[in-house]
Amino acid sequence: MSTDAADAETDPGSTIEVTPSAAEEAISLMRSEGMDVEEGGLRLFVQQGGCAGLSYGMRFDTEPEDDDLIVERHGLRVFVDPASENYIGGSTLDYESGLQAAGFHVENPNVVSECGCGESFRT
C-alpha cells in the first residue's frame, strides 16, 4: 500500500482507506461542530445489530483511545478500535451524494453477505 507525504498511519500495516470526498465531508462536519481536526477524528467501528448481525458505526471523537489504530488520509484522522479492525481491515470509507440519498459508505471486502437495506453485514 502506498501513501504520500501528506498521508500518515500510526500502524503501517493498516489497510483502511478514505476517499478524498469522504475526508472532505468529514472535515467539513467536524469544523462545523467546532472540533479540532488536528487532534480529533472520525471513529469508525463495528457493533452488534441489524438483520445480518453486524453494523457500522461512526462518530466524531476529540482524541483517539490508547489502543486505537490511527489512519490519516487527505487530512482526516480515522480512529479504529482493535476489535473493529478485525472486521473492517481492507475497507474504504467513501462519501456519496445524490438525488435520493447522501452519506458515508463503507466498502468492505470482508463482507460475505449484507441485509437487503445494506445497513448490516456478516463476515
UniProtKB/TrEMBL annotation:
Coiled-coil parts of chain: none
Top-rank lineage group of the source organism: Archaea
Domain Core: 16-119
Pfam families, A to Z: Fe-S_biosyn
PROSITE patterns on file: HESB
Database matches in SUPFAM superfamilies: HesB-like domain
PANTHER family found in the cross-reference section: IRON-SULFUR CLUSTER ASSEMBLY 2 HOMOLOG, MITOCHONDRIAL (PTHR43011:SF1)
Protein name: HesB/IscA family protein
Organism listed in the record: Halopenitus salinus
